[in-house]
Amino acid sequence: DAKTTQPPSMDCAEGRAANLPCNHSTISGNEYVYWYRQIHSQGPQYIIHGLKNNETNEMASLIITEDRKSSTLILPHATLRDTAVYYCIAFIQGGSEKLVFGKGTKLTVNP
Amino acid sequence: NAGVTQTPKFQVLKTGQSMTLQCAQDMNHEYMSWYRQDPGMGLRLIHYSVGAGITDQGEVPNGYNVSRSTTEDFPLRLLSAAPSQTSVYFCASNKAGGRAREQYFGPGTRLTVT
User: Fold this and answer.
1) Contact present, A8 and A21 (Cβ < 8 Å)
2) What is the pLDDT of residues B4-46, one digit of tens each?
Protein backbone atom coordinates (compact mmCIF):
# COMPACT_ATOMS: atom_id res chain seq x y z
CA ASP A 1 0.00 0.00 0.00
CA ALA A 2 1.22 3.53 -0.78
CA LYS A 3 2.62 5.57 2.08
CA THR A 4 0.88 8.83 2.84
CA THR A 5 2.38 11.94 4.41
CA GLN A 6 0.40 14.46 6.45
CA PRO A 7 1.38 17.48 8.55
CA PRO A 8 1.33 16.56 12.26
CA SER A 9 -0.96 19.43 13.28
CA MET A 10 -3.13 22.25 11.97
CA ASP A 11 -5.32 24.96 13.43
CA CYS A 12 -8.54 26.40 12.06
CA ALA A 13 -10.97 29.06 13.23
CA GLU A 14 -14.51 27.98 13.92
CA GLY A 15 -16.77 28.61 10.94
CA ARG A 16 -13.92 28.73 8.46
CA ALA A 17 -12.99 26.01 6.00
CA ALA A 18 -10.40 23.50 7.14
CA ASN A 19 -8.15 22.21 4.35
CA LEU A 20 -6.15 19.13 5.31
CA PRO A 21 -3.46 18.08 2.84
CA CYS A 22 -2.15 14.60 2.15
CA ASN A 23 0.75 13.56 -0.01
CA HIS A 24 0.66 10.11 -1.63
CA SER A 25 3.21 10.40 -4.41
CA THR A 26 3.70 6.63 -4.76
CA ILE A 27 0.03 5.75 -4.99
CA SER A 28 -0.79 3.10 -7.57
CA GLY A 29 -3.62 3.22 -10.07
CA ASN A 30 -5.94 0.94 -8.11
CA GLU A 31 -5.42 2.55 -4.71
CA TYR A 32 -8.23 4.65 -3.34
CA VAL A 33 -7.67 7.58 -0.98
CA TYR A 34 -9.69 7.16 2.21
CA TRP A 35 -10.07 9.64 5.04
CA TYR A 36 -10.96 8.77 8.61
CA ARG A 37 -10.99 10.85 11.76
CA GLN A 38 -10.66 10.01 15.43
CA ILE A 39 -12.27 12.29 17.96
CA HIS A 40 -10.51 12.20 21.32
CA SER A 41 -10.14 8.52 22.21
CA GLN A 42 -13.11 7.18 20.32
CA GLY A 43 -12.93 4.66 17.49
CA PRO A 44 -12.05 6.13 14.08
CA GLN A 45 -14.91 7.31 11.88
CA TYR A 46 -15.06 7.06 8.11
CA ILE A 47 -15.35 10.43 6.33
CA ILE A 48 -14.97 10.05 2.58
CA HIS A 49 -13.01 8.31 -0.13
CA GLY A 50 -12.15 8.74 -3.80
CA LEU A 51 -10.14 7.33 -6.66
CA LYS A 52 -9.68 10.00 -9.33
CA ASN A 53 -12.63 12.36 -9.23
CA ASN A 54 -13.41 14.90 -6.56
CA GLU A 55 -16.01 13.70 -4.09
CA THR A 56 -18.43 15.41 -1.73
CA ASN A 57 -20.73 14.11 0.96
CA GLU A 58 -22.54 15.56 3.94
CA MET A 59 -19.34 15.65 6.01
CA ALA A 60 -16.63 16.87 3.66
CA SER A 61 -15.20 17.28 0.19
CA LEU A 62 -12.20 15.46 -1.22
CA ILE A 63 -10.06 17.07 -3.90
CA ILE A 64 -7.58 14.75 -5.66
CA THR A 65 -4.97 16.23 -7.98
CA GLU A 66 -4.99 15.10 -11.58
CA ASP A 67 -1.73 13.14 -11.15
CA ARG A 68 -3.20 11.61 -7.95
CA LYS A 69 -0.04 12.36 -6.00
CA SER A 70 -1.82 14.46 -3.41
CA SER A 71 -5.26 15.24 -2.09
CA THR A 72 -7.00 17.69 0.21
CA LEU A 73 -9.83 17.04 2.62
CA ILE A 74 -12.06 20.07 3.04
CA LEU A 75 -14.38 20.64 5.98
CA PRO A 76 -16.35 23.60 4.64
CA HIS A 77 -17.47 25.15 7.93
CA ALA A 78 -15.41 23.73 10.76
CA THR A 79 -16.98 23.46 14.21
CA LEU A 80 -15.43 22.75 17.60
CA ARG A 81 -16.69 19.18 17.27
CA ASP A 82 -14.42 18.70 14.23
CA THR A 83 -11.36 18.84 16.49
CA ALA A 84 -9.84 15.40 15.89
CA VAL A 85 -6.96 13.47 14.35
CA TYR A 86 -7.53 13.03 10.62
CA TYR A 87 -6.00 10.07 8.81
CA CYS A 88 -5.38 9.85 5.06
CA ILE A 89 -5.01 6.26 3.89
CA ALA A 90 -4.23 4.71 0.52
CA PHE A 91 -6.27 1.54 0.19
CA ILE A 92 -6.70 -1.19 -2.39
CA GLN A 93 -10.27 -2.42 -2.68
CA GLY A 94 -10.60 -6.12 -3.28
CA GLY A 95 -7.18 -6.88 -1.89
CA SER A 96 -6.43 -7.66 1.72
CA GLU A 97 -8.81 -4.90 2.80
CA LYS A 98 -6.28 -3.75 5.37
CA LEU A 99 -6.22 -0.14 6.47
CA VAL A 100 -2.73 1.16 7.26
CA PHE A 101 -2.95 4.14 9.62
CA GLY A 102 -0.16 6.69 9.93
CA LYS A 103 -0.01 9.30 12.68
CA GLY A 104 -2.47 11.62 10.92
CA THR A 105 -3.03 15.36 11.34
CA LYS A 106 -4.28 16.74 14.64
CA LEU A 107 -6.79 19.43 13.66
CA THR A 108 -7.69 21.91 16.37
CA VAL A 109 -10.70 24.13 15.70
CA ASN A 110 -10.48 27.30 17.78
CA PRO A 111 -13.45 29.44 18.85
CA ASN B 1 -28.43 -1.78 14.92
CA ALA B 2 -25.89 -1.70 17.74
CA GLY B 3 -23.04 -1.58 15.20
CA VAL B 4 -19.72 -2.85 16.57
CA THR B 5 -19.66 -3.60 20.28
CA GLN B 6 -16.63 -4.38 22.43
CA THR B 7 -16.34 -5.72 25.94
CA PRO B 8 -14.95 -4.96 28.40
CA LYS B 9 -14.41 -1.19 28.17
CA PHE B 10 -11.56 -1.28 30.67
CA GLN B 11 -9.35 -4.10 31.93
CA VAL B 12 -6.32 -4.38 34.19
CA LEU B 13 -4.23 -7.55 33.98
CA LYS B 14 -1.15 -8.78 35.74
CA THR B 15 1.83 -9.92 33.69
CA GLY B 16 1.34 -13.49 32.54
CA GLN B 17 -2.44 -13.53 32.81
CA SER B 18 -4.56 -14.37 29.80
CA MET B 19 -7.85 -12.91 28.71
CA THR B 20 -10.19 -12.52 25.75
CA LEU B 21 -11.39 -9.24 24.35
CA GLN B 22 -14.83 -9.61 22.84
CA CYS B 23 -16.03 -8.00 19.61
CA ALA B 24 -19.40 -8.41 17.94
CA GLN B 25 -21.14 -6.75 15.01
CA ASP B 26 -24.76 -6.98 13.89
CA MET B 27 -24.36 -5.56 10.37
CA ASN B 28 -23.63 -8.91 8.68
CA HIS B 29 -20.20 -7.66 7.62
CA GLU B 30 -17.80 -10.18 6.15
CA TYR B 31 -14.59 -8.44 7.21
CA MET B 32 -13.50 -7.87 10.81
CA SER B 33 -10.23 -6.53 12.18
CA TRP B 34 -8.41 -5.86 15.44
CA TYR B 35 -6.16 -2.83 15.92
CA ARG B 36 -4.14 -1.52 18.81
CA GLN B 37 -3.35 2.12 19.45
CA ASP B 38 -0.51 3.21 21.69
CA PRO B 39 -0.33 6.77 23.07
CA GLY B 40 0.32 9.36 20.36
CA MET B 41 0.38 6.73 17.63
CA GLY B 42 -1.88 5.70 14.80
CA LEU B 43 -3.66 2.36 14.78
CA ARG B 44 -1.74 -0.81 14.01
CA LEU B 45 -3.42 -3.91 12.63
CA ILE B 46 -3.11 -7.04 14.79
CA HIS B 47 -5.26 -9.66 13.03
CA TYR B 48 -8.07 -9.61 10.54
CA SER B 49 -10.67 -11.93 9.05
CA VAL B 50 -12.35 -11.93 5.66
CA GLY B 51 -15.07 -14.36 6.70
CA ALA B 52 -16.04 -17.07 9.16
CA GLY B 53 -13.25 -19.60 9.51
CA ILE B 54 -10.66 -17.37 7.81
CA THR B 55 -8.14 -15.25 9.69
CA ASP B 56 -4.77 -13.71 8.88
CA GLN B 57 -2.03 -11.77 10.59
CA GLY B 58 -1.64 -8.04 10.46
CA GLU B 59 1.33 -5.85 11.34
CA VAL B 60 1.73 -6.78 15.03
CA PRO B 61 0.28 -10.28 15.61
CA ASN B 62 2.73 -11.65 18.19
CA GLY B 63 1.17 -12.46 21.55
CA TYR B 64 -2.39 -12.51 20.20
CA ASN B 65 -4.69 -15.19 18.83
CA VAL B 66 -7.99 -14.85 16.99
CA SER B 67 -10.69 -17.11 15.66
CA ARG B 68 -13.82 -16.45 13.63
CA SER B 69 -16.41 -19.17 14.17
CA THR B 70 -19.36 -16.93 13.28
CA THR B 71 -19.86 -13.89 11.08
CA GLU B 72 -20.86 -11.80 14.08
CA ASP B 73 -18.04 -12.46 16.55
CA PHE B 74 -14.29 -11.96 16.40
CA PRO B 75 -12.64 -12.42 19.82
CA LEU B 76 -9.02 -11.46 20.47
CA ARG B 77 -7.10 -13.59 22.93
CA LEU B 78 -4.04 -12.44 24.86
CA LEU B 79 -2.10 -15.58 25.65
CA SER B 80 0.25 -14.29 28.36
CA ALA B 81 -0.13 -10.58 28.97
CA ALA B 82 2.96 -8.36 28.96
CA PRO B 83 3.33 -4.66 29.89
CA SER B 84 4.09 -3.95 26.21
CA GLN B 85 0.50 -4.93 25.45
CA THR B 86 -0.84 -2.01 27.44
CA SER B 87 -2.85 -0.19 24.80
CA VAL B 88 -6.29 0.68 23.51
CA TYR B 89 -7.76 -2.05 21.34
CA PHE B 90 -10.25 -1.33 18.59
CA CYS B 91 -12.32 -3.82 16.66
CA ALA B 92 -13.70 -2.91 13.23
CA SER B 93 -15.89 -4.43 10.57
CA ASN B 94 -16.75 -3.70 6.97
CA LYS B 95 -18.75 -5.16 4.16
CA ALA B 96 -17.07 -6.93 1.28
CA GLY B 97 -17.90 -5.77 -2.21
CA GLY B 98 -19.74 -2.63 -3.15
CA ARG B 99 -18.42 0.82 -3.89
CA ALA B 100 -17.11 1.82 -0.50
CA ARG B 101 -15.09 -0.03 2.09
CA GLU B 102 -15.73 2.14 5.10
CA GLN B 103 -14.83 0.34 8.29
CA TYR B 104 -17.01 0.71 11.35
CA PHE B 105 -15.11 0.85 14.61
CA GLY B 106 -16.12 -0.14 18.10
CA PRO B 107 -15.62 2.12 21.13
CA GLY B 108 -12.40 0.41 22.19
CA THR B 109 -11.09 -1.59 25.15
CA ARG B 110 -8.51 0.12 27.35
CA LEU B 111 -6.09 -2.51 28.64
CA THR B 112 -3.42 -2.00 31.27
CA VAL B 113 -0.92 -4.74 32.04
CA THR B 114 1.02 -4.32 35.27
Assistant:
1) no
2) 999 999 999 999 999 999 999 999 999 999 999 998 788 999 9
Specify whether the CB–CB gap between A60 and A45 falls below 8 A. Answer: no
On chain B, the residues whose CB falls within 8 A of the CB of A100 are 45, 59
- A43/B48 touch (CB, cutoff 8 Å), yes or no: no
Contact A101 B42 (CB under 8 A): yes
Partners of A32 in the beta sheet? Answer: A91
pLDDT tens for each residue of A82-107: 999 999 998 876 666 677 888 899 99
- CB-based contact (8 Å) between A49 and chain B? yes
Sequence-separated (6 or more) residues with CB below 8 Å from residue B94: A97, B29, B30, B31, B101, B102, B103, B104
A84 strand-pairing partners: A107
